Amino acid sequence: MSVVLRTRGVPRPVPLLSDLTADRVYRAKWARDLDTGFVSHLSGEGSERIVFNESRRPERILEEVRAKAKRAKISLCMIVKNEEPRIRACLESVLPFLTQIVVVDTGSSDRTPEIARECGAEVYIHPWQDSFSVARNHSLSYATGDFIFWLDADDVLPFAMGEALLDVALRAPKEDVAYTCAVRFVDQGGGGATVDHVKLFRNRVGAKFIFRIHENVLPSLREAGGNVVKTGLYVLHANQDTSPEAVARKRELHYKLLMMDLKEQGEHSFILFNLGMTDFFNGCHERSLDWFERSIAAGEPGESQTRKCYALWSAAYRKLNRFEDALGIALRGLAMVGEDPELRSQAGCPLIDLGRYEEAKQQLLLMKPDALSNHFTSLDPVIFGPHHDHHMALACLGLNDYVGARSWLLRALEARSLYMPSVQELWRIAEANGDFETMRRVMSVIEQITSHSEMWVEFGFRYASALESYARNADFLQRALSTDPRSKTIRLAYARLLYEAKREDEALYHFAILGNDGVAIGADSAAVILAKHGRYQKAESYQRLACKLAPDNDFISDQLDKLTSLFQLTH
């Protein structure tokens, strides 16, 4: 009987699961203290001493908030379907600020209605009729408050925004009929687009949503007369289902309802814009061009979607590498709607692509955030920070201005937690120019934000490699491990380096520690080294541990079978 045990090269470090669950539990436990401003920060979130503000003690603040809520009389109106994983977080975030919660369920097959009732909501069943507006209007019919506020189930209202919401309602002049509340889409890097919506409006002013999809209450509010006021209110859109299946279902539904709207209402600018936007974000850039052109032709310069339509139209041309067309549409949009920072950005970027670097710098320097203060907006604020600074750096590089490029990239790096395009570009140009000071600065920022993460280890390797020294690599990791001995990422990288240097006994020591600490790749690698030296019984023990830690890994299971056979053959 012959059994061959594959002795793999020890793999490079892979991302390890941090204790995110424990962190979430910890933050949830003290969330109210943070939300109300009673504590400045949590233990472990900075070296500064925690400051307590007695005037913001949660019990006192909640009592004041509930008293305000009774006077403001705001009804929450929602429509839902199969939102079990997220609806509780949404409703619990708004509970202190409202006197009524209306939830219209359009056909859930999960526990969504039960959870809503547990949170104090009035739940009404309404059959789905291929129209978000029909469902929303049905929810409005149950509202008894003086004001109506609407949310989606994957929205969360921050506590400070709930307090501000009450103040807006209580101080509202009679001539104001509605107020904006932005939706901030939260991505994994902490950023995301911010989209203005009219989410708070007076009850019984003829409010009515229109359109089957991307439903809009604004036209009916404007018909009723009175002011629609832009505010600083916002909700966080952070719990949406982003699984491929959910995205595919959403895409199919959007197309279906938009085409139904188009058939019923004809060349409506808002419908055409949404068709273009849907195609754009689904990667159908060529097809989106026609929708955007038709939307502009059918609409008026002052419509809420016009600015965004020009911006996406220009961006679609750029995605297709038609840079002259992208520039032309951006400049045409600026001439039509007036100053707009997103359109300035859309003009600057294709100028970089075209090699017209000085013109690009001039366009980017004209970007002013306050140009949008009186307009409905839909954009990612990153365009005013890292995105802007990154493209300024690219323009500087095109002009052979390394010092200027480094300055702009450092700004981008420090303005937001690891804006990755700038991290990578800054490291690239610093490495190419032998600028070790800047390389160390990049590593320092990464360490401050991510601690001793895989990214930090990778850049440490590259830094030492730039100095052309294996010893520096080993020294770097050894010192990092002595500073942070619990870091599995550093230990894994160090073990791998030792293994590749044929220092297998030392590598085995660290792989064994990792395996005993719950890292499958550590146990598996320890088994590989032990098997090479004929220590099959011990190797089998570590391979069993690896299987336990990674039960779905077929390669590890296969290795265990072979090790077991080898052990039996030798005994």
Q: Quote the average pLDDT.
A: 85
Instruction: Please report the distance between the alpha carbons of the first and last residues.
Output: 14 Å
Silhouette = globular
Number of helices: 26
Q: Taking strands numbered 1, 2, ... along the chain, how are they ordered across the largest sheet?
A: 3-2-1-4-9-6-10
Give the class from helix and strand content and strand pairing.
Answer: alpha/beta
Percent helix range: 55-70%
Low-confidence stretches: 1-26
Q: Which radius of gyration do the C-alpha atoms yield?
A: 29 Å
Number of strands: 12
Strand content: 5-15%
Largest sheet: 7 strands, mixed
Characterise the protein shown here.
The protein has helices spanning 20-29, 31-35, 58-72, 87-94, 112-118, 132-140, 159-170, 218-224, 244-265, 269-281, 285-298, 306-319, 323-337, 341-353, 357-365, 386-398, 402-415, 420-432, 436-450, 454-466, 470-483, 488-500, 504-516, 520-532, 536-549, 554-570; strands at residues 74-80, 100-105, 122-125, 147-150, 155-156, 176-180, 182-185, 194-195, 198-202, 227-229, 234-237, 378-379. It has 571 residues and is α/β, with parallel strands linked by helices. The strands form two sheets. It has a seven-stranded mixed β-sheet with strand order 3-2-1-4-9-6-10, with helices on both faces. Strand 2, helix 5 and strand 3 (122-125) form a beta-alpha-beta unit.
